[in-house]
Specification:
30-stranded mixed sheet; 4% helix
Length: 339
């Protein structure tokens, strides 16, 4: 069933779908699937809000002045009558107020733990290339194509992925990994159950995971990276870095002198820092589980010690504090590949 777009964007109207006979008639013979389509006329720079009780959310972008919404609901392990009852009870609503589209879905509490039939949901949405997203699902993954806007992405049961984002990103998941190709503005990403992989980051980065590794290709702003269960790999860093892990090694590259002090610490592995030519640091390195070595010249202070090294690199600069209790520390020159 296709419902025509809202005609007056200045009037707030809510459309509640209770899956009446007209929609149920579109179900296949097995009575297990329902597909809902809707189109909203908008302008670039608007807002899409989705608050879903379950299901994956996939966002694609296009040169368009409309938001196209498709919701696919499928009931498994059910008779036709059970499937119809479950679809009727699943409350799917949408609304448009000006340039903001809101989609909500919830199941009444008495059906949330209903044994037997299983309801799966997929949200497939097309938005203008410039659009803000506020997406929240309690039971699925979130994927977003390349987009310009402010993104807030949250799921309790899946992974989060995004292409290049010209804007800011806040992403949180309790049960999956996070992968973002790049962000021009600030990025805050948090997961309790997976790894974090970030591309070219143009603003500040705050990355936190309790169950995986962290990898950042490059960052021009300050970086905070913390994990309790994996390694940290930092590419070209231009700003100050705070990196902490209890379960792996840390590698960081500084092709240029960063704009502030850095602190790298691990309890479960070694630390390797690569510094570009003529990049100055005030080095403070100490380990209890290995040796501290440097392949770049350090004007050391005090008596040499295999587990400690303090001094200036290339005449000094921002502080570079390195600490590990589970491995060694090595400072190496960064070799830049010539094409």
């Amino acid at each position: 069933m296709r419902i025509q777009p809202f005609r007056n964007l200045r009037i707030f109207r809510t459309c509640a779908i209770i899956l009446a006979a007209a929609e149920l008639a579109l179900l296949p013979a097995s009575g297990l699937e329902a597909i809902t389509n809707q189109v909203f006329q908008v302008s670039p720079g608007g807002n899409l809000v989705i608050a879903a009780d379950r299901g994956s959310i996939d966002i694609v972008t296009a040169d368009t002045n409309a938001v196209g919404l498709t919701v696919i609901r499928e009931v498994k392990r059910a008779t036709d009558s059970q499937a119809k009852e479950l679809l009727e009870r699943h409350q799917l609503t949408w609304a448009q107020s000006g340039n903001t589209i809101t989609v909500k879905a919830r199941m009444p509490s008495e059906y949330r733990n209903w044994r037997g039939p299983n309801l799966s949901v997929r949200y497939q949405v097309t938005v203008p290339k410039q659009f803000n997203l506020d997406l929240d699902t309690s039971g699925g993954s979130i994927s977003v194509a390349e987009i310009q806007g402010q993104l807030k992405l949250e799921t309790s049961g899946g992974s989060i992925s995004a292409g290049e984002v010209d804007g800011t990103v806040k992403a949180n998941t309790s049960g999956g990994s996070i992968k973002i190709a790049g962000v021009t503005g600030a990025a805050t990403v948090d997961t309790s159950g997976g790894s974090i992989e970030l591309g070219v980051m143009g603003g500040s980065v705050d990355a936190d995971t309790s169950g995986g590794s962290i990898r950042i290709r490059s960052a021009t702003g300050p970086v905070k990276a913390k994990t309790s269960g994996g390694s940290i790999e930092l590419g070209d860093m231009a700003g100050p870095v705070q990196a902490d892990t209890s379960g792996g090694s840390i590698t960081a590259k500084f092709p240029k002198s960063p704009t502030g002090d850095s602190h790298l610490e691990t309890s479960g592995g070694g630390i390797t820092v690569l510094v570009g030519d003529s990049v100055g640091f005030d080095l403070d390195a100490e380990c209890s589980g290995g040796r501290v070595t440097s392949d770049v010249s350090v004007a050391s202070q005090g008596k040499p010690n295999k587990s400690e090294l303090r001094g200036q690199i290339a005449g000094g600069g921002p502080k570079l504090v390195l600490r590990t209790s589970g491995g060694g520390i090595r400072v190496k020159p960064l070799v830049v590949a010539v094409n």
